[in-house]
Design a protein that fits this description.
With about 100 residues, the protein is an alpha+beta fold. It has one domain. It contains two helices and four strands, in the order E-E-E-H-E-H. The strands form two sheets. It has a two-stranded antiparallel sheet with strand order 1-2.
C-alpha cells in the first residue's frame, strides 16, 4: 500500500516582504510504502501529536471570524503569517527530542 501526504502553504499566507518567516515555510510531502511482513508489524514506530498552547508564536492576525478583513487590516499586512522564530524553534526542538526519546 502506498500512503501519500502533502501540504500546500506556498503563497496564501506568507508575506514575501518578511524575510524572517517566508523562507521557513514551503510546500511539503511525504510517502511511505507498507507491505506484508513475516509475522512482524509493518510499521516500526509512529508519533503524532498536537499542542495549541503556543498559538501566539505562530499565527495570522486577521482575516478570520475574530478579525474579519477590512481595508485597514489589508493595508496593515495583517493577513500574513506572523512568527516568533525563537519560540517556534524552541518548541520544535523540544518536541523532536521528546519524540526521539519516546521511540528510542
Amino acid at each position: 500500500m502506498l500512503i501519500i501526504g502533502a501540504e500546500k502553504i506556498s503563497i496564501d499566507c506568507k508575506d514575501w516582504q518578511d524575510r524572517g518567516t517566508c523562507i521557513l515555510f514551503g510546500d511539503g510531502a511525504g510517502a511511505m510504502v507498507l507491505g506484508n511482513t513475516d509475522g512482524g508489524h509493518p510499521v516500526l514506530g509512529i508519533s503524532l501529536g498536537a499542542d495549541g498552547s503556543g498559538a501566539e508564536a505562530l499565527y495570522v492576525p486577521a482575516g478570520g471570524a475574530r478579525m474579519p478583513a477590512t481595508h485597514e487590516t489589508v493595508d496593515a499586512r495583517m493577513h500574513y503569517l506572523k512568527m516568533d522564530g525563537k519560540e517556534v524553534f524552541k518548541r520544535a526542538i523540544g518536541n523532536d527530542v521528546r519524540c526521539l526519546e519516546k521511540n528510542a
